[in-house]
Amino acid sequence: MPTRRRSWAEPWKIKMVEPLKMLTADERKAAIEGAGCNTFLLRSEDVYIDLLTDSGTSAMSDRQWAGMMLGDEAYAGSRNYYHLEDAVRDVYGYKHLIPTHQGRAAEHMISRLLIEEGDFVPGNMYFTTTRLHQEMAGATFVDVIIDEAHQPDLMHPFKGNVDLDKFQALIDEVGAEKIPYISDATTVNMCGGQPISLENLRQVSELAHANGILVIHDMTRVAENALLIKEREPGQADRSMEEIVRDICDLTDGCTMSSKKDHLVNIGGFLAVNDDALADKARNMVVIYEGLHTYGGMSGRDMEALSIGIYESIQYDHIHARVGQVHYLGNKIADEGIPIMKPIGTHGVFLDAKRFLPHLDQDEFPAQALAAELYVESGVRAMERGNVSAGRNPDTGENRRPALELVRLTIPRRVYTQAHMDVVAESVMEIWDKRESIGGLEFTYEPEYLRFFQARFRPKC
């Protein structure tokens, strides 16, 4: 008898539902115009399928909700803090935990603690908030990611890898004493959720430590990266998620974590380090900016949900289904010949707006225009990851015009069904068919920092 191919299903069942509503096309057009063609400025109640971000938008488990009922809301010494500390040490191995309300607070602290004016911070492609904190602390960010990361149609299993020659060249040029740390992210957001390999991280760690440079791990989606190491890197297939995640962390000196992603919570994050003196400075700083060092801007109930989420994040069935849903959507879109970032990453499908809208110059913000058009067509909210997100060169004032001009369809964890993914794919196909009619945009309001969050646009005449 021939073996029948079986489909797969989500490793959870639904206990509670939240109704969705679909506005009419005219209502959606009015909504996006009122939002200045910026999907961040839409009201969530006007969105049908929300793929703006996977940050804080996941569905918590019954165990996490139960944990919320066990919140110890003492101002100091909450037992939930110690549960969280135990979970971080158990799963990730870092010695010291400093909780924060979300990841960018940890980015702020590590930048302020380690960077001096005139320093350089290499990293495997920039992330918006991370680079801004580094620049505001006085450093210059230097992209040392491999060249393949900037080629959206090139199949490479680990586009997030650091180019060791670029890293060495920076050391030779400015001196190791001007490089306090290298920022190495697992699953690089700005190039489509592309992973790093364990072998590359080993080499980065060896080179950095040989020169007295720390390795700071942006571990927001470390479990997702571990899955792709398991699936793509030779010699890793039979290893557990727990083992791979721990290996990643053991090669680094500390981390910043936005727990609103991998850990399946609505709020929370932390800075974790191994150095005693650095931890002491961080605890002193967190009291100034976040709250006492045993809550750091989080309630006790949030810390409890987070500590449970750490263990759930490394369960193979969960992470395999989570990344599998992303690949399901990506393959449906790519099979229609629509250009996306390849290979498909972990947390979203990234439409290649340059090839989608080749008639638009990059300074007409094709990714922003494409995201706005997708909402008008279908009520699906996505976000721009391109020229608007990259910001302006502080020296010239010109748009940075990054090599990648992408629209991110970000999948929240445990929220949407495959039927929702079908609707999203069909919506992208609809605007692909009329892509030549989509025009560019120009600013009507441009904030000084992180302009993609609050900027407003209008159609360019």
Describe the secondary structure blueprint for this structure.
Blueprint: H1 25-34, E1 49-50, H2 62-68, H3 79-91, E2 96-100, H4 103-114, E3 120-123, H5 128-136, E4 140-143, H6 164-174, E5 181-185, H7 198-210, E6 214-218, H8 222-232, H9 241-250, E7 254-258, E8 269-273, H10 276-289, H11 300-313, H12 316-334, E9 348-352, H13 353-356, H14 366-378, E10 380-381, E11 383-385, H15 387-390, E12 406-410, H16 418-433, E13 441-445, H17 451-454, E14 456-459
Parallel strand pairs: 1-10, 3-4, 5-6, 6-7
Antiparallel strand pairs: 2-8, 7-8, 9-12, 11-12, 13-14
Helix pairs in contact: 1-14, 2-11, 3-11, 4-5, 4-10, 8-9, 12-16, 14-16
What this model shows, in words?
With 461 residues, the protein is α/β, with parallel strands linked by helices. It folds into 2 domains: 25-54 and 316-459, Alpha-Beta Complex (Aspartate Aminotransferase, domain 1); 62-313, Aspartate Aminotransferase, domain 2 (3-Layer(aba) Sandwich), CATH 3.40.640.10. Helix content is 40%, strand content 13%. It contains 17 helices and 14 strands. It has helices at 25-34, 62-68, 79-91, 103-114, 128-136, 164-174, 198-210, 222-232, 241-250, 276-289, 300-313, 316-334, 353-356, 366-378, 387-390, 418-433, 451-454; strands at 49-50, 96-100, 120-123, 140-143, 181-185, 214-218, 254-258, 269-273, 348-352, 380-381, 383-385, 406-410, 441-445, 456-459. A 5-stranded mixed beta sheet has the order 2-8-7-6-5, sandwiched between helices. Strands 9-12-11 form a 3-stranded antiparallel beta sheet. A two-stranded parallel ribbon has the order 1-10. Helix 7 (198-210) links the parallel strand 5 and strand 6 (214-218). The termini are far apart. The model has no long low-confidence stretch (mean pLDDT 96).
